[in-house]
Amino acid sequence: MTSNKTRQNLIDATERLLRSHGLAHVTTRAIAREAGVAEGSLYHHFSDKAELLHAVVQYSMGDFRHALESLPLRVGQYTVRENLEHMLQAAFDFQFKIIPITCSLFADHALLARVREILSKHCIGPARSVEALAAYLQAEQRLGRVAVEISAQSAAELLLAGSFHGAMFDQFLARQVGPEAVRLRLHETVRTLLAGLTPRSPEEAPIPNDRKGAS
Amino acid sequence: MTSNKTRQNLIDATERLLRSHGLAHVTTRAIAREAGVAEGSLYHHFSDKAELLHAVVQYSMGDFRHALESLPLRVGQYTVRENLEHMLQAAFDFQFKIIPITCSLFADHALLARVREILSKHCIGPARSVEALAAYLQAEQRLGRVAVEISAQSAAELLLAGSFHGAMFDQFLARQVGPEAVRLRLHETVRTLLAGLTPRSPEEAPIPNDRKGAS
Amino acid sequence: MTSNKTRQNLIDATERLLRSHGLAHVTTRAIAREAGVAEGSLYHHFSDKAELLHAVVQYSMGDFRHALESLPLRVGQYTVRENLEHMLQAAFDFQFKIIPITCSLFADHALLARVREILSKHCIGPARSVEALAAYLQAEQRLGRVAVEISAQSAAELLLAGSFHGAMFDQFLARQVGPEAVRLRLHETVRTLLAGLTPRSPEEAPIPNDRKGAS
Amino acid sequence: MTSNKTRQNLIDATERLLRSHGLAHVTTRAIAREAGVAEGSLYHHFSDKAELLHAVVQYSMGDFRHALESLPLRVGQYTVRENLEHMLQAAFDFQFKIIPITCSLFADHALLARVREILSKHCIGPARSVEALAAYLQAEQRLGRVAVEISAQSAAELLLAGSFHGAMFDQFLARQVGPEAVRLRLHETVRTLLAGLTPRSPEEAPIPNDRKGAS
DNA sequence: AATGAATGAGCTTTCATTCAT
DNA sequence: GATGAATGAAAGCTCATTCAT
Question: Are residues B39 and B66 in the same domain?
């Protein structure tokens, strides 16, 4: 059996370099040195550089899937707010990690096309995440815990867009945002979307806010 | 003064190539051919390739400002929904265009760092857009046309994130989405955020689904 | 003793690849796969790749000897034309087969030099074939069946050159020439050399064009 | 205008290396060093290595074409023997020079296929030479200087095959054959083909031989 | 200012060979 | 004997940059 150790070494090394230097500087030479193997070894485990990069993308997707898969179990459990914040935190962590990688792909449309193919073949990718979250929201709509008149699809998009946008520009602008600040930002995002921008009539029960108690 | 014609030629050619082929294949030779000038000419107008790319990014960033600048004039005018949809459409068009370019920058962190500098020096970039939109929302909050208990900052982020996320994955997945479908998607985004996910109490009038009228 | 089976496997596989793909693409990996053994096994039977190629050439050179060895037995038997056509057909078949292999050797002069050594050590090769055919022609000259004023050496060279040239350019130009067309070509070659280009004096019987009987 | 000096430099250097070391050792690195230019320069004048090799083959063909083109002018002039010897000498010089190059091509079938294409597109190559010589012989047949009963095509093939075979094996066996010995060999080749192997009837005029006076 | 040939470092990939299992 | 992962030198080729014209 071919040892998976060198293979994993290469994937990890590539991910590290991708994050720290960007695709353009992630050469096979650099990867091999970072992984501590010979350059030729790369081609025993991957048919070419694109296949290695694809493996990195696929590998990086692992963490987020668990959060998505646990969503159906939370329907009707905890509060909607808690569930959304929990999911959004997982989304953010994942997005923050893969943004430098997936964005790099725009630099090489041939590579981008290849990754696209793989995503669609494996039925993964951003569209799938939106779908999973929308399904959760619809289930909650049926339970009356989410307003029925909004579009679950739109709401799911907005939520994931919110964390994605934050992750994207933390990376793009090299903003140093600590985990607590991120948590607060996501909390506000969820609170805002739960409340909506339309002013409530006075007699209506205010949105409960365990943080600030806005009456 | 150095002829601005060749200079602009080069910037336009580079932008076109960047959009259609990705940073990795935008070579100085390809740029020169696309611009119809000699390869060496590039170095009469830009000290190196990075400076040219930097000029392209700077140039591409100029477009969105008009829509943002018109926002204060709309405070209290039209409906909030109309204003937000109008702004979001402008945001989307802009984002869709620059995403292939700005994302490419992640391939070269040195270049990315240089662009960051420009952004902060010129006080432009995504943070500025969020700020302008948040200011508008706060003004509307003062007029009672937007709920006071939500965070204008969060709401502004959510809106721009919504259009950005759509633009990003239309590009990433090479989705063919027509302008009408985009308009509909943005309409739904605004409607959802206006309504919020929290169910309204029975006696409250539901959010109407048609375009005008939510008084 | 090392198993001759794997060894022969490797030689056969290499010969097949050499013929179908050319020396440049006959890699040790390709040979091993074609032979159905591990890449490393090659080095249990041959000290290096050159020695394997050398074995292939040596092995491929064995075939033509039988036709040459039967020549002395045909002196004075059948017609000269029949004997020459018979020999030329055998020569062509052999040459057509080994041309892709021996020509490949020009790509590597070091290998070529090694093969030269074998040829001279084993007293085989093209010079030996010419010699054997010339000896046959001299024997026929003594019997009066071949003109005495021509050079047997030159005639032998011309005959073998004729079939070789045909084989070489059928291969070089990838000409699809069926066996019947080859036979006809060789028939014409022999007829032309038998007749000679010099016009015969009028009272002399012209060379008949049919196969048998030129008395 | 692009200077042809570097281009010719590269062609000459490649030809020299091809002859002295064989295709396998003719690397772009070696060519550049031999030509005294940078490796990258090669790609300003040729789209890739194959195109350079093709240029070498084409360039090497130059000398022989003149001999072929002068053939029609010699119809009915000098003696047939003189004309054939003259043409065969030019053929040999040409063949001796290009054999290491063209044979090398068998090592890389992809390259071979490309050269084949070029040859057929430009209507050059070995078939064309045979054709030109056959046309000359037919013209002489009409003048009665060549026997009408032989096939001009076969005779032309035999002549060119004769010089080719000699050149091929001088190269293959690294035989040191001086120019005088080559001339003698070609002289004998022509004499043998002119005479034919069929014994002449006694009363017939002997083949005139200005060299040995064979009665 | 404009040109484009020349440069050479650096890229991805191949491949004969070794060696621990 | 057999295996195949690992090696690293070297292959063909690209490309930002320079410079004589």
Answer: no
